[in-house]
Structure formats: structure tokens, C-alpha cells
Design brief:
This protein has about 475 residues and is an alpha+beta fold. About 20% of the residues lie in helices and about 35% in strands. The chain contains eleven helices and 27 strands.
Length: about 475
């Protein structure tokens, strides 16, 4: 073999080897995997009673008319109730019909139906955790079902293939594929954000469904998407990692509730400037802003201005790391903390408390009083969109705006907008809260304009534009 032929042979062998490597990495089809996994993926429908005002009168009473006041009482009696339904996804983890889904899929539901193999089963809630958005259901049947297994989500690498199966827009049995786009995403959704980002298509109805690796293991629970303007998937979806979810799921199954570790400190980020003043080599750790009275941290002698660098042997690289690690640590465990105080490293040992038993947690669970605001210029009463609206109506988690709670018979919006419509824009200016609505409308009227372009989300969660001339 001459030199030229050797070169050609080596080049051929190189490309053959390289091509063979890629053929193993890139699956020719997901069909076998989908066929194996689909019997373990379920489709969830829920119903709840929603109270709403009756239809507005098709006529208006003149200002000062005694009939206006008289018919207010009549209108109260015309309050109606209707059944609202919502769809989601889930997956079976035990052959007895134990199902995992998102908490927001079943929150406030009166009836829950789980569909599998074109058959519906009633289900009850075993336990739910709104803080990580996880719920455990149990189908009311003695039948056996094929379960799926959790994989090690810590081994998932950016670029790995993943497959999502779910019920987008009620289209059950939908399979999409993509890759792990990023790890450890913090999108300020919860205090424990640590999402897997994927470009596998995830849409409304996929919530609670599984994200599989190519071994058929669940490495994530599909939970959220970024969808500007209420649009569908744009290839940015987020899943709760299986490792973090498994710990919460075990607690919900065993206790019907979560039992998270509690330290009892309020923390903030260590900035570059703070690190420089404190003589730290780089910005790291969690700066203690305050210590809760009689908390584990207080009893151990932690003080404001301490910087927690290590917790139970784990390095705290950023402030957001600490709550996740503390929450996943067993209640009652004795842990050691490494703390930077007065430019010196010291160590403290404490016994971890339980978050759900703390006064801090109980205070956060107190119902928030929603303040109604009257928009005099429009003769309507509104309030801010809240978390309950988002979960009960299955709205995008980033939805902001003003919910209409009352429309005067003298309002120009009577018959055009309805109770529970959400005003999200006026003259294409975003409305993030009710005070914004009042300020924007007043500015428009001061300019002498009387016609408003109002963007709303109606009771069917559809975006609508409405041109209104205000008298």
C-alpha cells in the first residue's frame, strides 16, 4: 500500500469511527421508548365550582335613579355558580395507581379524574406541596398499572436527549423530544427553584407530566414554560428535577405533608462589594440579614452579618443554594455550619428545626387580604391578580393585571366586559397591578382622549382586544 492510499484509508477509518459514535448518540427513533412509556402516563381533568355574577342588565339607570339602588340587591340574588374544568398530565409511580402531578393542576379541585387507556378513574389527593408544586394522587381502584421509575437527575447533562409525554390542550398521548438545554435554572417561581430547562415542546396541559431520559427513567416533572403574550411553546420549558421531587414525594406519601428542615435566618446575596469589605476572596455564601427569635440559628448563636459558607459539609456558592439544602435536610439532624464572622472562619453546630412548625411558616400561610380598588373614571371595581387566580384558572404563572370584581350599571363597560375578566393592557400599556390601571386611565383622560383600547383575558382564558368609548 503506497503512502497516498494509506492516507485515504486512515481518513476513511476516522470518519467511519466518528460517524459510528454519533449514530449511537442520536436515536433513529423514539417509537420503542414511547410505546413502552405511554401506558404509565395519565391525563388529569378536574372540576371546581366558580361563583360569578349574573348577566348585566341590558339597560342603564340614569344617575341618581332610586331604581339603581333597588336593583343592586336584586343583582346580588342573581349570583350564579358554574363548573370550571381544567386539564393536566401525570405519571404512575406505583402499580396500585399512585400518580404524580403538579399541585397547580389539582389545586382547589372538587373532583379529580385520571384517564388511562381510555378509561376514567376517580382520584383523591394523598398530599400536595404548593412550594415545590408537586401533588400525589391515588386512583380509587384495585386494578394494577405499569409504573415508571425515577432516574438520577443529577446525571442529566446539558445536551442529553429527553422525551416529554403529556396531554397538551387535551390532546392526550402526545410525545415530544428535545434536549436538556440548561441545568439549575432559577426563574423566581419558588424559593426552591432548581429547574431543568428543555426545548422539548411543553404546552398548556403538559403540566405534571414526565420528562424522560433515553433509559425511560423520569428525570423531571414538567411544570412551567416561558410563553410571551400567552402564546404556546417557544422551546423554553422547565421541569422539577427528579432528585429534588423524590424527597418531597416520599414525605407526601408517608406523612401526607412535607417535613422540611428549618434554620431560621433571613438571608441575602453576598455582593462583590460586601465580599471586598469582609475580606472574602470572592463573593460566595449567604449573608445573614436577621435571625429569627428562638430559632435553631438563634439558639446556636448565629448573628446578623454572619456569612454562611458551608452547611453540613456542603459549600454554599450562592444565597439561593442555602434554602434548597436546608429544606432537603432531615428535621432534627445535628449539622455543622462554617461561618465567616469579623473576617475569621468559625464553626457552629445546631439541631435543625421543622419549617412547617415555625412561626415564619405559619405567618406566611395566613390568608392575604385582597384590597379592591374602585376605578371611578370607568365605574368598575378591580383587584390585583393573585396566586389563587393563577392556579384555579390555570393561567400562565407570569400573568399580571386587574381582575374585575364589580361593574356599575352606569359604566360604559357594562355589557362589554364581565366579572372576573382580567385587564392586562390599556392602550397597549401593560397593567401589572390595579393602581397601574387607575393611573394609566387617568393619564389618558387628562390628554382629552375618550376611547380606550383594552386588552383582557376573559373567563375562557382567551386574550381579547376591546375598543371602548367612555362617556
Amino acid at each position: 500500500m503506497n503512502f497516498k492510499n494509506k492516507i485515504i484509508t486512515y481518513i476513511f477509518l476516522f470518519f467511519f469511527s466518528f460517524s459510528g459514535l454519533n449514530s449511537r448518540d442520536i436515536p433513529g427513533s423514539f417509537a420503542d421508548l414511547a410505546e413502552k412509556l405511554m401506558p404509565s402516563v395519565v391525563y388529569i381533568s378536574t372540576t371546581q365550582t366558580v361563583k360569578s355574577s349574573g348577566r348585566q342588565f341590558p339597560f342603564q339607570f340614569p344617575p341618581g335613579s332610586p331604581f339603581g339602588e333597588m336593583f343592586k340587591e336584586f343583582d346580588k340574588e342573581r349570583q350564579t355558580e358554574r363548573k370550571a374544568s381544567a386539564l393536566g398530565s401525570g405519571f404512575i409511580i406505583k402499580e396500585n395507581g399512585t400518580v404524580i402531578t403538579n399541585n397547580h393542576v389539582i389545586a382547589n379541585a372538587e373532583d379529580i379524574l385520571v384517564r388511562i387507556n381510555n378509561k376514567d378513574y376517580k382520584a383523591k389527593v394523598v398530599g400536595a406541596d404548593p412550594y415545590m408544586d408537586i401533588a400525589v394522587l391515588k386512583m380509587e381502584t384495585k386494578e394494577k398499572f405499569p409504573p415508571v421509575q425515577f432516574g438520577d437527575s443529577d446525571k442529566a447533562r446539558v445536551g442529553d436527549w429527553v422525551v416529554a409525554i403529556g396531554n397538551p390542550f387535551g390532546l392526550g398521548g402526545t410525545v415530544t423530544s428535545g434536549i436538556v438545554s440548561a441545568r439549575n435554572r432559577d426563574i423566581n417561581l419558588t424559593r426552591y427553584d432548581d429547574f431543568i430547562q428543555t426545548d422539548a415542546s411543553i404546552n398548556q396541559g403538559n403540566s405534571g407530566g414526565p420528562l424522560f431520559n433515553l433509559e425511560g427513567e423520569v428525570i423531571g416533572i414538567n411544570t412551567a414554560i416561558i410563553a410571551p403574550g400567552q402564546s404556546g411553546s417557544i422551546g423554553i420549558g422547565f421541569a422539577i428535577p427528579a432528585n429534588a421531587a423524590s424527597n418531597v414525594i416520599d414525605q407526601l406519601i408517608n406523612y401526607g405533608e412535607t417535613r422540611r428542615g428549618w434554620l431560621g435566618v433571613r438571608i441575602q446575596e453576598v455582593t462583590k462589594e460586601i465580599a471586598e469589605v469582609e475580606k472574602l476572596k470572592k463573593p460566595e455564601g449567604a449573608l445573614v440579614a436577621s435571625v429569627g427569635e428562638n430559632s435553631p440559628a438563634d439558639r446556636a448563636g448565629l448573628k446578623a452579618a454572619d456569612i454562611i459558607l458551608k452547611f453540613d459539609g456542603t459549600k454554599i456558592d450562592t444565597m439561593r443554594t442555602l434554602p434548597k439544602i436546608v429544606a432537603n435536610t432531615k428535621v432534627g439532624k445535628s449539622v455543622q455550619l462554617e461561618i465567616w464572622r469579623n473576617k475569621k472562619l468559625i464553626k457552629k453546630r445546631l439541631t435543625l428545626g421543622r419549617l412547617e412548625s415555625s412561626e415564619e411558616f405559619k405567618a406566611k400561610k395566613q390568608p392575604v387580604v385582597i384590597k379592591d380598588i374602585e376605578i371611578e373614571s370607568l365605574k368598575i371595581t378591580v383587584r390585583d391578580v393573585n396566586d389563587k387566580d393563577i392556579t384555579s384558572r390555570k393561567l400562565d404563572k407570569n400573568t399580571k393585571g386587574s381582575v374585575i370584581v364589580k361593574i356599575s350599571n352606569e359604566s360604559s363597560l357594562t355589557g362589554l366586559l364581565n366579572i372576573n375578566d382580567i385587564i392586562i393592557e390599556v392602550q397597549k400599556t401593560p397593567i401589572t397591578k390595579s393602581t397601574d390601571l387607575n393611573n394609566v386611565v387617568n393619564k389618558i383622560f387628562k390628554k382629552g382622549e375618550k376611547t380606550l383600547l383594552i386588552t383582557v383575558i376573559n373567563k375562557d382564558n382567551q386574550r381579547r382586544y376591546l375598543g371602548v368609548k367612555i362617556n
